[in-house]
Amino acid sequence: MKHFVRTLLYLLMITFVISCQKEISSESSMDGSSLVKGVLKMKIDGTQWVADKVATASIMAGYINISGISKDKKFFTITLMDDVVKTYKLNPIDFEGGAALADSAELNNNSYGTMQSDDMAYAGGTVTVSKIDESKKTISGTFQFKLFREEDSTQKVITEGVFEDLVYETTLPPSSSTDTFTVKIDGADWKGESIFGTYVDLTKQIMIVANNSTATKTVGLTIPSDIIPGSYTLDFWGLTYIGLYNPSPSLSLASESGTLKVLEHNTATKRIRGTFDFKATELVPTNPPKVANLTNGYFSVKYQ
């Protein structure tokens, strides 16, 4: 269960990074101003919470993501496994999506999630998407669920959740001219059309995500924020040096084995550069398991 929980958490985080990519990378985000485009709020154990720093949504590749960050350092994200108006069930049994909440101001800032227990007394609930306005590019709805943290058996109860007229994105911004991410995937050259690097305070890691413009194909790397030049083993289950490859929205592959070589990491300019290769296999294996080989990878990215 723990590996499955962590897998889903990483996927939720990556979806959050993708969905926030356009907003977080804008100049306005660098001066600490608000990036709120609509309303995202809820009660956490009866206390009102509002996403007053970042509130954003995306509808891409058949998925809906709703995410927010508050000025008091709480991170919240919902990912739904479809892109239509309906009520979605969030639990590992009727898995139509997942949600996670973390507070980086807490001593233990590991996340609570709807997927961390198969007992609906501890985790799970619903999200109702009531309206998608395709002309205004806004989404509205409500949610309520229980979030559970398996490692210490603690719970958060979410009530009166609302997202209203939240502006959503359907495509990603092009890469900066100074950023590069290239790799051979099963021998075929691939280049990221939209590249983004960010420091994730929640996990003290840097996430580098390269996509095509519609986020239907993604290659990502997750590494410690204090990484120094050197050679590292890419092993998803170690949860420290991770390679991820999504050849399609419905398929996720992770690094079973491989190597990351960091050539440069300038923490002052936030520029990181390196090479990589890894064998990627299914997170939840089928028979026969799907496998991809990523070779000759190179990246040079400035992270936020």
From TrEMBL:
Entry-linked InterPro entries: DUF6252 (IPR046219)
Domain of life the protein comes from: Bacteria
Protein name (Swiss-Prot/TrEMBL): Uncharacterized protein
Organism, scientific name: Paraflavitalea soli
